Structures are given as structure tokens and as C-alpha cells.
């Protein structure tokens, strides 16, 4: 039994250390499964309905468990299964079943602890993608004069998602000179917005 615990501790510990060292040099880091859903654009007038029944609680619990289950968490579980088993086995006249239960408890505790930590760290990721559709309704300043009646493009600067962005702009109104305050009324194409005087 001690041999099994030793092999588990050495194998799991070696893989954990190798994975840690590889992640320090930028290899193999951040490849655990991630279950975040992306930002999906929808039309403004679209109807959306969702039916949630009693299965939702069970599905949430299952997805939470799968969210903490990763290769790192499994290797930590294997390592602490071995270490916990060795510690319990080293106490002397222990019942083999009790030693095995202690080893499993140590492994499960490590699995959930490391899994929870990894899931929490994954939440710290930031999506730096600027989504143009979020610009509608925001105010900005004309940087380059915008010709009247969509006769050409100018440029506007505005603050969107906590950053200053500069985009091409058109207007259906009269000419908007540099320094004018404007409001974004629509997205014409990627990189171009339609503005009106604020």
C-alpha cells in the first residue's frame, strides 16, 4: 500500500512541478478548460425567451464541478492522495481502509481547492475587445471635420469600455467641425460610426 501512495505522490508531484516550470517560461500555461460564454451580438428588437425549470440547479452544479476539474487539479489530487496516504500509513497500526479513506479525502480536498483557485484565477482574465455596438449612445468629440450628408468621413474620439478610441465617422446632418461634441447614433461598418450633434 505504501508503494501505491509513493508512486502517486511522485508521479503527481513531478507532473505538477514540470507544469509549473513550463508555465513560468510560457509553455503550457492557461490551457485548462474554460467555460465562459462569449459576448454574442443580438438585434435591438429581437425577442428572447428562456424557460428555466427545476433541472437548472442540477445543471449548474454539474457545470461548476466540471469548471473546477482540470488537469492541474487532477494532478494535485493524485499528489495529495499519495501524500495523505503516506502520512496516514506512517502512523503505524492504522486500519488499511481508514488509511485509504484518509488518502481519498486528502486527494478530493486538493482537487476542489486547486480547481477552485484555478477557476477563480481564470475569472481575472479581461477581454480587451472593443465592441463597436456598445458605442451607440455614447458622446465624443470630432477630431477631423465630418462632411455634411454622409459626403465623406471625418474622425471622432470617444471613451468606450474605459479606453479612448478613434473611429471614422459620418453624419446625416450638416458639417461637424473639429472640436464639436457629438453622440453616436449608429454603426455604419467596422471602424465607422454615424454621429449627430450632441
DSSP strand tally: 5
End-to-end Cα distance: 77 Å
Rg, rounded, reads 28 Å
Task: Provide mean pLDDT, rounded.
Answer: 81
Please, how many helices? 4
Regions with pLDDT < 50 over 5+ consecutive residues? 31-57
Main beta sheet: 5 strands, mixed, barrel
The structure class reads alpha+beta
Helix content: 40-55%
What is the spatial order of strands in the main beta sheet?
1-2-3-5-4
- What is the count of distinct domains? 2
Strand content: 15-25%
| Spatial shape | rod-shaped
Q: H/E element string? A: HHHHEEEEE
Fold topology:
Layout: H1 2-24, H2 55-68, H3 71-89, H4 96-122, E1 139-144, E2 154-160, E3 163-171, E4 181-189, E5 192-197
Parallel strand pairs: 3-5
Antiparallel strand pairs: 1-2, 1-4, 2-3, 4-5
Essential attributes:
5-stranded mixed β-barrel; 198 residues; OB fold (Dihydrolipoamide Acetyltransferase, E2P); 5 strands; alpha+beta
Mind explaining what this structure looks like?
The chain is α+β, with helices and mostly antiparallel strands and 198 residues long. The protein has two domains: 2-29 and 63-122, no CATH class; 132-197, Nucleic acid-binding proteins (OB fold (Dihydrolipoamide Acetyltransferase, E2P), Beta Barrel). The chain contains four helices and five strands. The protein has helices spanning 2-24, 55-68, 71-89, 96-122, and strands at 139-144, 154-160, 163-171, 181-189, 192-197. Helix 1 (2-24) packs antiparallel against helix 3 (71-89) and helix 3 runs antiparallel to helix 4. The model is unreliable at 31-57 (pLDDT under 50).
Amino acid at each position: 500500500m505504501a508503494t501505491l501512495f509513493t508512486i502517486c505522490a511522485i508521479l503527481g508531484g513531478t507532473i505538477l512541478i514540470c507544469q509549473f516550470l513550463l508555465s513560468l517560461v510560457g509553455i503550457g500555461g492557461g490551457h485548462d478548460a474554460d467555460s465562459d460564454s462569449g459576448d454574442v451580438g443580438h438585434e435591438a428588437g429581437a425577442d428572447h425567451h428562456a424557460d428555466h425549470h427545476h433541472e437548472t440547479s442540477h445543471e449548474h452544479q454539474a457545470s461548476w464541478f466540471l469548471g473546477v476539474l482540470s488537469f492541474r487539479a487532477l494532478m494535485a489530487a493524485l499528489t495529495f492522495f499519495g501524500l495523505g496516504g503516506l502520512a496516514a500509513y506512517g502512523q503505524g497500526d492504522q486500519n488499511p481502509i481508514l488509511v485509504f479513506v484518509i488518502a481519498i479525502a486528502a486527494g478530493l480536498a486538493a482537487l476542489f481547492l486547486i480547481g477552485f483557485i484555478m477557476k477563480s484565477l481564470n475569472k481575472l482574465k479581461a477581454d480587451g475587445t472593443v465592441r463597436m455596438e456598445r458605442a451607440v449612445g455614447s458622446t465624443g468629440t470630432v477630431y477631423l471635420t465630418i462632411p455634411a450628408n454622409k459626403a465623406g468621413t471625418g474622425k471622432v474620439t470617444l471613451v468606450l469600455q474605459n479606453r479612448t478610441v478613434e473611429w471614422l465617422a459620418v453624419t446625416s446632418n450638416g458639417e461637424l467641425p473639429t472640436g464639436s461634441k457629438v453622440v453616436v447614433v449608429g454603426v455604419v461598418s467596422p471602424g465607422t460610426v454615424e454621429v449627430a450633434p450632441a
